[in-house]
Amino acid sequence: MEVILADNLGFCYGVKRAIQLAEDSAAPGQVTNTLGPIIHNPQMVAKLAENGVGTVDSLDEVKEGTIIIRSHGVGPDVYDRVEAMGLNMVDATCPHVRKAQSSAKMLADEGYQVVIIGEKRHPEVKSIIEWAGDGAVAIETEEEADSLPKYGKLGVVAQTTFSAPKFKLIVERLLDKSSDMKILRTICTATDQRQSAAMKLATEVDLMIVIGGKNSANTTRLAQLCSDKCKTYHIETAEELRDDWFDKIKKIGITAGASTPDWIIKEVYKKCQKK
Ligand code: SF4
């Protein structure tokens, strides 16, 4: 079977950095936890746990040791609380997310009404809202943009992983909401690159396998985009591949979300080659 990997797939810079920081933080006999799963990939989270890096959902569960802030980032209150609790902190916030957070704060400090274009329930967007302060709002559709009132000064930032074309469409709908508008396009290129490579490959193969956490927004999006072009399956591990998917298939394309470890991609690649 011919199996082709997308030109861009798997761990992005921010995730690689976060995993490295987490691995480096593990020390025998010491308590080390990430605040929330380090990435949206259950297999990687389990592997870190085996090496002594656990996961807590809240600082209330922590009494001592090291707390790792994941690449999605957190609001300023968490930094204050970690300091007050006397915990050791390892900040693995992706620098691109940090830029979106500081851009939102800067706009708010300059008196702009901050609008974040992104998924409201995503931890990164929540953290950006917290840096921007109480009045900030998050929107993710053109309809939500239409429903906003007019503002004296309007500042816009993006969730780093938001779709670039959709960001543009929503911004266009915001243009008549203020005569003083500042747009900071805080979108990270890793997402664009993975999406473009996946869509290109999906037009060249009979079947796409998209690998990554079922709870990973960027992997789910990759699967949606590929399914517009060809038959597509979203899996987390090689064990999920089923023989009947490959009937009459000559070429398989593989892509993976930004939080999918290399070892899982390799396993899936090898198994597909044997089909
Ligand atoms: S997708 Fe971009 S912003 Fe998000 S962690 Fe990766 S490099 Fe950072």
UniProtKB/TrEMBL annotation:
Q: Which UniProt keywords apply?
A: 4Fe-4S, Iron, Iron-sulfur, Isoprene biosynthesis, Metal-binding, Oxidoreductase
EC no. given is: 1.17.7.4
Residues at the catalytic site = E124
Q: Which domain of life is it from?
A: Bacteria
User: One GO MF term, please?
Assistant: 4-hydroxy-3-methylbut-2-enyl diphosphate reductase activity
Q: Write down the InterPro entries for this protein, in alphabetical order.
A: LytB/IspH
The record lists dimethylallyl diphosphate as bound by H40, H72, H122, S216, N218, S259
Q: List, in alphabetical order, the GO biological process terms annotated in this UniProt record.
A: dimethylallyl diphosphate biosynthetic process; isopentenyl diphosphate biosynthetic process, methylerythritol 4-phosphate pathway; terpenoid biosynthetic process
| Binding site residues for isopentenyl diphosphate | H40, H72, H122, S216, N218, S259
Question: What pathway, per the record?
Answer: Isoprenoid biosynthesis; isopentenyl diphosphate biosynthesis via DXP pathway; isopentenyl diphosphate from 1-deoxy-D-xylulose 5-phosphate: step 6/6; Isoprenoid biosynthesis; dimethylallyl diphosphate biosynthesis; dimethylallyl diphosphate from (2E)-4-hydroxy-3-methylbutenyl diphosphate: step 1/1
Q: Please list the residues that bind (2E)-4-hydroxy-3-methylbut-2-enyl diphosphate.
A: H40, H72, H122, T160, S216, N218, S259
Cofactor annotation remark: Binds 1 [4Fe-4S] cluster per subunit.
Names of the cofactor(s) = [4Fe-4S] cluster
Give the enzyme's main class according to its UniProt record, as a single word.
Answer: oxidoreductase
Instruction: Report which reactions are catalysed by this protein.
Output: dimethylallyl diphosphate + 2 oxidized [2Fe-2S]-[ferredoxin] + H2O = (2E)-4-hydroxy-3-methylbut-2-enyl diphosphate + 2 reduced [2Fe-2S]-[ferredoxin] + 2 H(+); isopentenyl diphosphate + 2 oxidized [2Fe-2S]-[ferredoxin] + H2O = (2E)-4-hydroxy-3-methylbut-2-enyl diphosphate + 2 reduced [2Fe-2S]-[ferredoxin] + 2 H(+)
Pfam families to which the protein is assigned, alphabetical:
LYTB (PF02401)
Annotated [4Fe-4S] cluster binding lies at: C12, C94, C188
Checking HAMAP family in the record gives:
IspH (MF_00191)
NCBIfam families noted in UniProt: ispH_lytB, PRK01045.1-1
The family line of this record is: Belongs to the IspH family.
What is the stated purpose of this protein? Catalyzes the conversion of 1-hydroxy-2-methyl-2-(E)-butenyl 4-diphosphate (HMBPP) into a mixture of isopentenyl diphosphate (IPP) and dimethylallyl diphosphate (DMAPP). Acts in the terminal step of the DOXP/MEP pathway for isoprenoid precursor biosynthesis.
Q: What is this protein called?
A: 4-hydroxy-3-methylbut-2-enyl diphosphate reductase
Name the species this protein comes from: Anaerovibrio lipolyticus
